[in-house]
Amino acid sequence: MTTPADYYQRDRGRHPRALTPDYKTSVARSPRLPLISLQQTVSEITGPVFGHDDVGPLDHDLIRNYAKDGDPIGERIIVHGRVLDEDARPVPDTLVEIWQANAGGRYRHKKDTYLAPIDPNFGGCGRTMTGADGRYAFRTVKPGAYPWRNLVNNWRPAHIHVSVFGRSFSQRLITQLYFEGDPLIALCPIVQTLPDADAIDQLTAKLDMNATIPLDTIAYRFDIVLRGRRSTMFENRPEGN
């Protein structure tokens, strides 16, 4: 009789190569020498630990948490799902953070010079803790597509950046979610670095009419799998997290 392993082996064929020339900045960022494994210190292993007391009552609501004199402009959406381990068990009490562009495709950042206007009522950042069942939810506006200086006419599909914190500082995983039906997904050089179509599908939030609020807010579901062969593709996973 054999004892099952603690973790399933990761399918590295689902993850992109470090050097993908069609994604221009990967040329400068890809390592030229073998990676070195660094031993973690006690502070990296033991902290920080986040709790529900660290999250404000409006942190999950991007429609309200920055608004000054009205709601932000754009399509109102709910993004929700579960954080799961490799055996589809819920991961409770996990800090989930998001950041995104506004409905016009512009970030609230001094280096974003895209011609779309800044929305004075939209900050573009939020955070929440997963519940006992691993569930999380955000209310926000659907971000717009925007051009980027990769090739002559490249546009990023609408997307939201997602960060998941584990039990220590070194256990932070970052990814991007896209939206079902967006034709720009198939044209994005960043997305197309993924060699597995199923991995791309796992990064695509699915329309969820059951969670949609009639005459108010459209809902999308995005589950996050932390480990194993079917894990969500995380941008910083190849770095060793």
Would you kindly provide a written description of the structure presented here, covering whatever features stand out?
This protein is mostly beta strands and 241 residues long. It has one domain: Aromatic compound dioxygenase (Protocatechuate 3,4-Dioxygenase, subunit A). 7% of the residues lie in helices and 24% in strands. It is built from 3 helices and 11 strands. The protein has helices spanning 25-29, 42-46, 197-202; strands spanning 76-84, 95-100, 125-129, 135-141, 146-148, 154-156, 159-165, 172-179, 204-207, 218-221, 224-225. The strands form 2 sheets. Strands 1, 2, 3, 4, 7, 8, 9, 10 and 11 form a 9-stranded mixed beta sheet that branches. β8, α3 and β9 form a beta-alpha-beta unit. The radius of gyration is 19 Å and the shape is globular. The model has no long low-confidence stretch (mean pLDDT 89). It comes from Pukyongiella litopenaei. Pfam families: Dioxygenase_C (PF00775), PCDO_beta_N (PF12391). Residues 8-41 form the Protocatechuate 3,4-dioxygenase beta subunit N-terminal domain. Keywords: Dioxygenase, Oxidoreductase. Residues 45-228 form the Intradiol ring-cleavage dioxygenases domain.
